[in-house]
Design goal:
The chain is an alpha/beta fold. It has helices at 32-42, 73-90, 115-125, 144-148, 164-177, 194-199, 220-227, 262-285, and strands at residues 19-27, 46-54, 61-69, 94-99, 105-110, 132-138, 154-156, 182-185, 204-208, 231-238, 248-255, 289-292, 295-298. The protein contains eight helices and 13 strands. It has a seven-stranded mixed sheet with strand order 7-6-5-8-9-10-11. The protein has a four-stranded antiparallel sheet with strand order 2-3-1-4, covered by helices on one side. A two-stranded antiparallel sheet has the order 12-13.
Length: 300
Amino acid sequence: MKINVQDKPFVQQEKMGNRGRLLVKCPDRPGIVAAISKFLFEHEANIIESNQYSNDPEGGTFFIRIEFEAPNLAEKAAAMENDFLALSEKFEMEHQFAYGEGRKKTAIFVSKESHCLLELLWEWQSGDLKTDIALVISNHEDTRGIVESLGIPFYYIPANKDIRKQVEEEQIKLLKEHEVDLIILARYMQILTSDFVDHFPNQIINIHHSFLPAFIGARPYERAYDRGVKLIGATSHYVTNDLDEGPIIEQDIERVNHRDHVPGLKKIGQSIERRVLARAVKWHLEDRVIVHGNKTIVFH
């Protein structure tokens, strides 16, 4: 069984043409690393980076991410993946192959607040966010000029709870037409229905302006201020049908004190949100995240 992946061919720099990644999740037992290493050696692959983890060496689950290079990888990738099936069956693996030329397509959803969107666009422009931004969808017009100035299609789709079904049908149609692999909710202030979420399992990344599981839902800064917290934070997670309770990818915090009122907390929080979301998206794009139940294994 393969871990869900949506990589598509994309011609990049020559130095990335022979680079591949392999992610594996399986029951822990002796010989897994040796078997995978032997397989890669037999396919002329040189291991560049390897990270592994077991949540319990005695009867637990084993996770590994390997980055490798192999000559003429594009030509032999299909045969390589087919050959791996026997090994996968032997060790009961869920696995995913990805390649340097497999550049994921992303869609960004945003409402009025633009700080997370701007951070993603800056990272993308600088080349640090290796993705094709296929489109931006918003329920407000505020960011249209910024997005379109970069040559990215912008779709204004008003949304509220009364028209949610037809709005999501239109959004899903656009996402399918653009062959989107990852949806980024960059402060998109609308609740997604279970139907929408079910279309994109582990393909929607959200940023929540709170250090979950504290202050789930709306107005977290106001509630944090009322509680007198000394730390505020942000959480980036995969979206599931449980509000703000999907597998957490990344979190960060800043210290605050009694002098920081709600506007100050929001300003500090926006800075945290930007960097937390950007890191989570990068790690997903680099195939560094394996979802396990309601948790993630993130190989930095």
